[in-house]
Amino acid sequence: MPSYLVTGGAGQLGQCFHTVAKEFPETHLFFASRNEVDITRPETLANFYNKNPFDGIINCAAYTMLIRQKKNQESTFKINTEGLQNLIDFAEEKAFNHSFFYRLCF
Ligand SMILES: NC(=O)c1ccc[n+]([C@@H]2O[C@H](COP(=O)([O-])OP(=O)(O)OC[C@H]3O[C@@H](n4cnc5c(N)ncnc54)[C@H](OP(=O)(O)O)[C@@H]3O)[C@@H](O)[C@H]2O)c1
């Protein structure tokens, strides 16, 4: 059964995946909170993978809301750009066939 890590699993989009997951019993989703997988800390991603190997990533982690982003541009860059790059690097390293990175308004 293919399995995917859902980063930012506690957020709005992550919760949507939670809701629909039962409709796709042939796919296993690992939902990770920021405490488990912090996308700005690649070692947390590697640790999670070592304990729960997965075949791809669905990234729902982000620093959201324009008002917050304007106030804290450093966090915005660290999470939405560097964090995203960490996930892409990991997906390339593991040669995942499918990964999904949601990003709307940045
Ligand atoms: N909501 C939608 O309808 C929708 C639709 C399409 C695309 N998108 C895109 O999907 C992404 C997520 O949107 P959202 O609405 O779900 O946002 P959200 O509700 O703010 O959720 C973002 C999640 O990311 C987590 N997060 C923040 N920094 C993190 C880090 N360093 N490592 C791991 N997790 C981290 C947050 O955890 P904490 O709560 O601990 O901060 C939170 O659970 C955005 O790029 C958005 O543009 C959203």
Element layout with pairings:
Layout: E1 3-7, H1 12-21, E2 28-32, H2 42-51, E3 56-59, H3 66-71, H4 73-93, E4 100-101
Parallel strand pairs: 1-2, 1-3, 3-4
This protein binds NADP nicotinamide-adenine-dinucleotide phosphate.
NADP nicotinamide-adenine-dinucleotide phosphate is lined by residues 7-8, 10-14, 34, 37-40, 60-64, 79, 83, 102-105.
Please, could you describe this protein's structure?
This protein has a single domain, classed as Rossmann fold. Strands 2-1-3-4 form a 4-stranded parallel beta sheet, sandwiched between helices. Strand 1, helix 1 and strand 2 form a beta-alpha-beta unit. It has 4 helices and 4 strands. Helix content is 44%, strand content 15%. It is globular and about 45 Å long. The mean pLDDT is 91. With 106 residues, the chain is of the alpha/beta class. The chain starts with a strand and ends in a 5-residue tail after the last strand. The structure holds NADP nicotinamide-adenine-dinucleotide phosphate. NADP nicotinamide-adenine-dinucleotide phosphate (NAP) binds next to helix 1 and helix 4.
In short:
With 106 residues, the chain is α/β, with parallel strands linked by helices. Helix content is 44%, strand content 15%.
Strand line-up in the sheet with most strands: 2-1-3-4
The CATH superfamily name is NAD(P)-binding Rossmann-like Domain
| Overall average residue pLDDT | 91
Radius of gyration: 14 Å
Helix content: 40-55%
Strand content: 15-25%
Instruction: Give me the secondary-structure category.
Output: alpha/beta
